[in-house]
Design goal:
The protein is an alpha+beta fold. Helices cover 18% and strands 20% of the residues. The protein has one domain. The longest helix is centred in the middle third of the chain and has 11 residues. It starts with a strand and ends with a strand. 24% of the residues are buried.
């Protein structure tokens, strides 16, 4: 099964949207992302930057997944973990290659609209 990549944000909203089932913040600002928010790379950013990720590289595979499947806000990550993609440790990961992904700015992502309502006590 293919699905969005898990990501953390340093600040989130006291809200969640399906498939999330909880919130982890006491902040009510509507500009903050709720848990479960899905985002993916915009088509323009993807096509304008694909050549920065070499064919066959690990970073290219993940860059393509960020476009096709996106990311999902799964947790608060603290001040050093804004837009932080998490995964399993492996000796097979090539950190030098994966570091290319750190150049993708948050503004390159667009929100994937959900039919599920945002649940919040705010």
């Amino acid at each position: 099964m293919l699905h969005a990549i898990r990501a953390t944000f340093s600040e989130t909203r006291r809200a969640y949207v399906h498939p999330a089932t909880h919130y982890a913040s006491d902040r009510c600002g509507r500009s903050l992302p709720p848990m479960g928010l899905r985002l993916r790379l915009s088509s323009k950013y993807f096509h304008n930057n694909l050549d920065r990720f070499p064919a066959g590289s690990q970073s290219r595979v993940i860059f393509e997944a960020l476009y096709h499947y996106g990311i999902i806000n799964a947790d608060n990550g603290g001040s050093g973990s804004n837009w932080f993609i998490t995964g399993a440790r492996s000796k097979g990961w090539k950190d030098g290659d994966l570091n290319r992904l750190k150049t993708v700015p948050g503004r390159a992502f667009v929100v994937v609209q959900s039919r599920a309502p945002v649940t919040t006590p705010c």
